[in-house]
Structure prediction request, 208 residues.
Amino acid sequence: MTFEHPDRDAIDLSAVLHALSDPQRREIVAELAASAEPRPCGSFAPGISKSTRTHHFRVLREAGLIEQWKEGTSKMSRLRRADIDARFPGLLDSVLGSKALAQV
Amino acid sequence: MTFEHPDRDAIDLSAVLHALSDPQRREIVAELAASAEPRPCGSFAPGISKSTRTHHFRVLREAGLIEQWKEGTSKMSRLRRADIDARFPGLLDSVLGSKALAQV
DNA sequence: CACAAAGTACGACGATCGTCGTATCATTTG
DNA sequence: CAAATGATACGACGATCGTCGTACTTTGTG
Prediction:
């Protein structure tokens, strides 16, 4: 918990919706939601540069969507599903559910 | 239907989330959702300028969230709830529902 | 026709966004 | 210690955003 994570009650809807409005970030969130296990940042979005990936992860973390911590040389990420579901019930499910459509 | 309205199947999730990420526009959508009757644009968001209001309504319309048509000198707006609900089930409810929180 | 009302078009402005490359840091491993 | 790995910091760039004011169009009303 050494990074900037907003408390559950401080999670802002505008920030969450903005974070989710980017397809790249939505893809990351979808992958995190699919695998319950935490994963290192580097295992996502292979098409983009490292700095861009860092940027996207920071946006997600500061919006309160993910939690991050260091583990060796890697940085692990986990979806804050309980917090998001508690604060905005149904939001994550509807956004991720529509991913099942041909929604790229 | 003389304006640019995306078809239901063409409604893009990124555009919808981006449109909803602005508090001003979310407020408009919330008011439209509250009163089932169409309302002229001028009856919203009294604090902002006319041009900004026009801009917000266009963003909402081009994202597929609202439908607009002229009626006399006014332009009426109605929420495309059925289309949004069909395309992204639960999304609108979760976004508007959280409005009930102290989410400004 | 003249006037008022409701929106739009068109820039403009500062701010933020998504992306990148390069340099740097922290950690593990040889 | 030295090298490699995984991620960050720091600009930088073009693009988009939210906001505004002013000028303009469209429509209805006297």
Summary: Chain A has a mean pLDDT of 89. The CA atoms of residues 2 and 55 of chain A lie 17 Å apart.
